[in-house]
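User: Please fill in residues for this 168-position structure.
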């Protein structure tokens, strides 16, 4: 009977409500950003560099979760963190957002906003963070569909809370 109930949960789509299995996290150390953080070992990374931005973009194998961590460059690197956060939200099309008091993670004080945005025609939940870290204006942006965000909340919290400066 127990196996039948588990089977029924998965067949009706309610299996998404079951806890996600723990994933092995890999530690990333970026000398460029003077930052370390952890991401699931199976997430794919792409690097993007423009005259105003350097970003490491991680995506889950199913591409339902996206994690961007990077820095502003050039004249944009001198923006105050609050203005950089507002520009990031405007650029990403945040439709509903809530700004939070500064939060400290791993010794870095971030300005943070959470909310929803419409990306590529789909509703997404996000966490956006901006901080000045050792002379780098850091940008952190994590987003997923509301379903994936809820189902993977503990994992996403681990990723976000792993951000820390590299020792000098």
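Assistant: Residues filled in for all 168 positions:
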């Amino acid at each position: 009977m127990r196996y039948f109930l588990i089977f029924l949960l998965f067949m009706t789509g309610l299996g998404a409500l079951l806890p996600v299995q723990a994933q092995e996290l890999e530690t990333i150390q970026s000398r460029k950003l003077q930052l370390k953080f952890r991401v699931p070992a199976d997430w794919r990374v792409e690097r993007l560099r423009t005259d105003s931005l350097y970003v490491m973009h991680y995506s889950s194998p199913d591409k339902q979760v996206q994690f961007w961590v990077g820095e502003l460059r050039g004249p944009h690197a001198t923006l105050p963190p609050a203005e950089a956060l507002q520009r990031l939200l405007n650029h990403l099309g945040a439709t509903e957002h809530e700004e939070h008091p500064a939060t400290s993670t791993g010794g870095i004080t971030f300005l943070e906003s959470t909310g929803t945005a419409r990306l590529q025609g789909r509703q997404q939940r996000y966490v956006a963070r901006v901080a000045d870290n050792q002379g780098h204006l850091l940008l952190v942006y994590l987003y997923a569909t509301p379903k994936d965000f809820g189902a993977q909340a503990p994992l996403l919290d681990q990723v976000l809370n792993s951000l820390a400066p590299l020792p000098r």
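For context: The chain has four helices and ten strands.
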